[in-house]
Description:
Blueprint: H1 2-9, H2 27-34, E1 52-54, E2 63-67, E3 79-84, E4 95-99, E5 102-106, E6 111-120, E7 126-135, E8 164-165, H3 168-177, E9 182-185, E10 188-194, E11 202-206, E12 211-217, E13 221-236, E14 245-256, E15 267-271, E16 275-281, E17 284-286, E18 298-303, E19 310-316, E20 319-323, E21 328-331, E22 333-339, E23 342-346, E24 359-361, E25 370-373, E26 376-380, E27 400-402, E28 404-411, E29 414-418, E30 425-426, E31 435-440, E32 443-447, E33 460-461, E34 465-467, E35 470-474, E36 482-484, E37 486-489, E38 518-519
Amino acid sequence: MREVESLAAAVPPTQGKKPHMRFSIKPALLSLLLIGAVAPAAASAAPTASFSYSPSTPVAGQAVTFSAPASNCDAGPCTYTWSDDGPDGRGGVSWPLGTGRTIQFTFSDPGTKSVRLLVRNASGAGATGVRNVTVAAASPTPTPTPTPTPTPTPTPTPVPSGCTVTTAAQMQARAADSAGKVCTVSGSIGSVTLTARPGQRVTFQGNGTASFANVTFDGAANITLDRARVTGGISFPDRSGRTHGSDIVLSNLTVGGTRAARTMPTALLSVRGGNDRITLQHSELAWTNAGNSGNAGYAIRAVNGNGEPINGLNVIDNKIHHIGADGMQLAGVAALRVERNEIAYVAAEPGSSEHSDSLQIMSLAGSAQARILRNHIHHVGYYDETATPADGYPAGQLLVHGWSDVPVLFQDNLIRENRNYSPMFKDESDGSVADNWTIDHNTIIRQGPPQPSANRSGYFRGRHVLTNNILARVEGTATWTKASGNVVQYGTVAGGVTDSALTFSTAWLSTDHPAAGIRQRAGTSW
């Protein structure tokens, strides 16, 4: 049990940094960490950790080989765990690179990577080695210039000689007349509404001082907002029955309040129907409260209401934390992608009547599979870092609360240290919609217990497909109708279980239930 707790503790919540990778813990590694019944190994010399890497001057996007041939580990089996301590060094955010004596890893971003190797022998003794690896920016591949065909020179369209923005009025004008340009934004702009639809993308890029109160895209298209702070929120009003807003990119933004002063918007990002192909990436959404309005404090609320669908919503590589209502509430969205996000500390403040789901996915639109991949979800049900599992909250939290009449793939996510008042995965099908979730190859550590005052209990409920997941110290009960290939540690299946109902509690798995798709630990392997 101590090994399971150490595994979860090794992945602390990000402190103001944006992740550049996401991961899923391999079953073989987790099974070694979780097994507490192996006989103690004979005393042996402590291992040593040292490694080399090649190439010696890697560039972003190039595979780097890490090898530890000089490491000494006599008392096998030994484990070799590689991680990147990040720019904040040891004790900050750490992201896994892989396991094994030799691995390959490709860094997507340039910079200095603090690569750490942990060598641990069968007796539990360990040693670490750290090296700084400088990753250079990749040089763009030159595009061959074709031989031009002489054509008449068109009369150029007049554009501003320089593209700078210091006011909302300037930003509105540049959105309309600066097609294909990158405009520098500086200072406090206040609130701005953009409606322009330039033929080529206009990028508004902050210079380090750019800030907004609120930003509204009302039918706008082909605009990027990059590197700015938004203290209120970003909204896309309903465009049903009118020209749709489309192709908006929100990148490297900081949206919301602060630890000392949480904000209470309807949502930090609000998208309504009639908006297409909206992307939020590499951004931080944080610090909201919900109050008692029942309609405030969300990080992302993309709901079409009674209007037309939202055709294309991408939420990728963001940090979403300290949210007083749902992390994401999504309904009427077609072609949904939620990938490589960190979602943490999602809980209504004491005294609020709001509930808080990390993901509330209601009936989706279209026919394309929705993809929820490689996210890190932790401390759902905790208001902040000082909260404990014994704290009582006025409203409960569901980890993933969803149903869908289009396929949803929930895969390769790490889910840890959460507390929920109701099923961790819950469907509310009324019989008129299909339950099309596939929940596959996720790692789920330390869930529960549910709040005593809850009128519902359990962590898994529904008719979705549950396959090849690792469940460690999952407290509560569960019912499932379709399951196969799952591994349960510190869990048990009650008597009479079939492949149409699974039940878990905190005792060791006592017997195999092949029909239910659950395997018992066998010796030192699964």
